[in-house]
Amino acid sequence: MSDDPLITPRAARGRAPDVFHPGAWVPMKEYPQREPVDFVVIGTGAGGGPLIARLAEYGYSVIGFDAGPYFRPLEDFASDEASQSQLFWTDERLVDGANPLKMGANNSGRAVGGSTVHYAMVSLRFRPEWFRSRTLLGYGTDWPLDWREMWRYYAQAEHDLSIAGPVSYPWGPKRPRYPYRAHEINGAAEVLARGAEAMGYKWAETPLATVSAPRGDSPSCVYRGFCRVGCSTNAKQSQLVTYIPRALAAGAEIRDLAMVGRIEVDAAGRACGVHYHRNGAWHFQAARNVIVAGYAIETPRLLLNSATDRFRDGLANSSGLVGRYLMTQSNQAVYGVMDEMVRWNKGPPSLTITEHWNYDDRKDFHGGYCWMAQGPLPVEWSAAMSGSRKLWGAPLREKMADYNHQVGLKMVGEMLPHPDNRVSLANEKDRYGLPVARVTYSWHDNDKAMIQHALGEMQRSLELVGAKDIWRQENDTNHLAGTARMGNDRKSSVVNADCRSWDIPNLWICDGSVFPTTGGVNPSLTITAIALRTADRIQMLQQTGQLNF
Amino acid sequence: MVNTRTPTGAPRNALALLGSLTGAALVGALYSRSQPTVAHSPTKTPVPDFAKANLAARRLNRAAGTLALSVLFDSALEHYRGQFRNRAMYTPLVTAAMALGVSAHGTMDQRQMPHVVRDTVYVLTAIAGLAGTGFHLFNVRRKAGGVSWQNLFYGAPVGAPMAIGLSGLLGYLSERVRETPSGQTPMVWGLPAGRVVGIASGLGMAGTTGEAGLLHFRGGFHDPFMYLPVTMPPVTALVLGRTALGPAGTERRATRWWLRATAILGLSGSAFHAIGVGRDMGGWRNWEQNILNGPPIPAPPAFTGLALAGLAALSLLENHPDD
């Protein structure tokens, strides 16, 4: 049988890959398909991973499904950008709208561990006011979650992921000390720091999910700089090396290369299992609860694809909001060239950050943004130079020679929720015969105003440190959110604060799609914190007899 | 809940084994043979003995040499890692090597007089330590963010050059003890030498604890054994301080044991660091990189050098009651 993880499932026959030791395995419990398990979790990323682990640790029977392969980072990951595109979800999707999203590297993952296998590890907390942005800041919509409760779950997530962050974080309310110390900053990160100081803004080392000292079987980060195409040393604390091994040890099962195509609903209107495609055939796994954690495209797609006579518009969609309020984050950048050697690809790409404009409200647009130091690898860099700067041939080649002197600042900005930005189903079918997602996206005035503000600020920062040949990358976006928003009532939201759908009491949605607003920071830590909370809530509801299974 | 914080396999076994060995050695130090002392003599009449002064001086040479050895390898490693970008970065290698040489000479030298080369080298070494501290401070201050945790962690280690400075100081004190005329209590700068050495090594111990504390904090105290060098040596420093300021001529068995335990800790620290090197990417097979980026193997014996100096101070105080 092939050992290609993209062809043959690895989690099978009572064992799963031991990601820390080449060729080794860890035992894995397996559940029969016909007997319902307590929880089926669809997706093993920042939302699914913690849920699978925590629910298994609470003693529930849990199966985590992922459409992607079960990688062994020590063996499967090459120091090669092209080869590592195997980590992205590159199945066909239709994109339209005034500003169609570019799907792939920045906003998807297809692997056990989800996109955390290749994310930039930036682990930030929301600004507390964002959980009540409508009431306190006058835009978007309020979350049904209290920031003080979230603060506790952030701390738990930071502990579980051994986040390496600054000794004291300069913005927002007090937070406990990060479990690991911040990494040494590289040349590109120092440029951000000097620029911020010249502007009178605070800066900090970015809290990152890669260890600055050994943890368990993870060695400390060796600053290869290939973080965003998969960490081949296991220093990165992705779901694949943190919650997933915990989940297996606690008795959960992982099914890799298992694409869930449909959630089955019984006559009583309760979810009763999932149809999934694995090893070339469709199977059915019975379940007492189904948790969808497929992120902002695949989650609504699955819910919409699971429509029945009873739920004609898709599951959990009585509000009509499944797929709506899709948000991305603006990810524009300003680049320049320094006289001195910088070597921006050394180390994690975003070692320093300024959250100045997340916490300063003296601006003429809603929402916030931060910016971080950059270190794109050569292929990604040449793609930005050709795609955004329209360089080709000899001029591109000439500019590429400046690679080791390049610096850049890249924003992560809050785009506002809009009902017309959405995920719907196209007529076209994918390789499983399932309708593909149509992703419609347009920037609105507030989004454009923020982007222009950020570009101006980042450019000023680079000018102040003496960067030359400055140019703006104006078209990039990254993280996704929305499409199954949480809220306080069934009319204006898809799930409640516990990520439980209003319509089907044993159907849960727990990933970035529940975000009512997306904030000006990378979302993964917030997704994980919500997942940890959801696991605790499920346990509490079960103990107080409010789940009935 | 499964433990994901401690390593599995060989590193875990090595840590357990080394932890047990260290514990056994610390207990074993309790039962090791004590130096005969004069503390039991019924009268407190000083019985200065030049052989004993010489023994104390040679012990100080040994302490200075241990520190110099630690600094020689540590600075070689760290400055090689820094690619000797500034030529001044060769200085500690030269001074530490010279201090090591004269310390070896002094340890074997049973004569009662100081040696001009030794004396000069030790003074130069002490000055180099002070100058190095200045260089390192300058390096930290000029980085973005100035004196910040980031730069204290990853800039030039501010406390490190004082290790070679202390080596020079201990050597200098050794020469002063050695030149004590027969029948007199060794004196330095008008003070009893035992007290001066005791205070110097106690302060050095406190400073070295600060350095270990800073760097182990940088490592997030990810292994429980990392708390040892920030808990045991401060007690050593306090005990040394108390001894140096307290009554002389009494036998201090607990102090002696604690100093020996600290000396052992410094040596086992190197072994702990070697395990740490093995936990980095590629383990010992990738030693060329991991020796540079992992925990510094030559650093912990600085504690051993200072504990040896403390033991020398203890003998001086026991043998030369001055009050």
From TrEMBL, chain A:
Q: Does the keyword Flavoprotein apply?
A: yes
Q: Which family does it belong to?
A: Belongs to the GMC oxidoreductase family.
Q: Which domain of life is it from?
A: Bacteria
The name under which this protein is listed is Glucose dehydrogenase
Give the Glucose-methanol-choline oxidoreductase C-terminal domain ranges: 417-531
InterPro entries attached here? FAD/NAD-bd_sf, GMC_OxRdtase_N, GMC_OxRtase_C
Under the heading PANTHER family, the entry gives: LONG-CHAIN-ALCOHOL OXIDASE
Decide whether keyword Hydrolase is in the record.
no
Q: Fetch the Pfam families from UniProt.
A: GMC_oxred_C, GMC_oxred_N
Name the UniProt key words of this record, in alphabetical order.
FAD, Flavoprotein, Oxidoreductase
Extract one GO molecular function annotation from the record: flavin adenine dinucleotide binding
Known SUPFAM superfamilies for this protein? FAD-linked reductases, C-terminal domain, FAD/NAD(P)-binding domain
Instruction: Please state every residue range assigned to the domain named Glucose-methanol-choline oxidoreductase N-terminal.
Output: 108-308
UniProtKB/TrEMBL annotation, chain B:
Q: Which UniProt keywords apply?
A: Membrane, Transmembrane, Transmembrane helix
Could you list the residue ranges that cross the membrane? Answer: 89-108, 120-140, 152-173, 225-245, 257-277, 297-317
Q: Which domain of life is it from?
A: Bacteria
Q: What is this protein called?
A: Uncharacterized protein
Originating organism: Acetobacter oeni
